[in-house]
Amino acid sequence: MTTPPLAGPPPAVPGRDQAPAGRPRNRLVAVVLSVLVLIAGAATAWWLTRDEDGSPLAGRPRVTDRAAGVSYAVPEGWQRAKKGDLVDAFTSSISRENTGGEEGGGVVLAGRGGPVPRSALKERTESVARSNAEFFYPDGHSTIEESRATTVGDRPAYTVALEVSDGEGGTGHLRLTLIAARDSRSAFLLGIAQPTGPAERQEVDEVLESASVG
Description:
- With 214 residues, the protein is α+β, with helices and mostly antiparallel strands.
- 19% of the residues lie in helices and 33% in strands.
């Protein structure tokens, strides 16, 4: 099966200059998620460690993304996509099909970027979150629901959550955590749930909260 390309310009990556955006075609994030789920279904060879802390996903297998320098837990029912099937902005991904039988589901993507000073984390995270909302929901609009400083391991980080309208009456949940990683670089985790409800939103958020740096 040939995977159709994502519409529009590449998603925003922290610490990199973005190419001017062209006008994207109307492509709902549900389609993107469905494609990622199909890709993930074919992926069987991936390494796991175990999360033994006290988080909600403690004991679950983890993705170790050495390119981004992060790891994160895999909830039950989620699968990992092969690296060759991701756009260049991302280094690993997990996804879950919508259990209601409709298009959509959940996806978490990891990636890396250039250095981001601690003082710029808030501004950069909010900017990158909005840029990705525009990429995945080209006909919609987003509203910030949460914006706060945090830490991942011993590294300063920032997380932003958006409620996103898809432009056709549906809503999605997008959360981005940007980490000021070591060696003059940054790492990020981007989570999206569509269609969104309390359970779907919580599951995506728990994956991002399970992140560790290495």
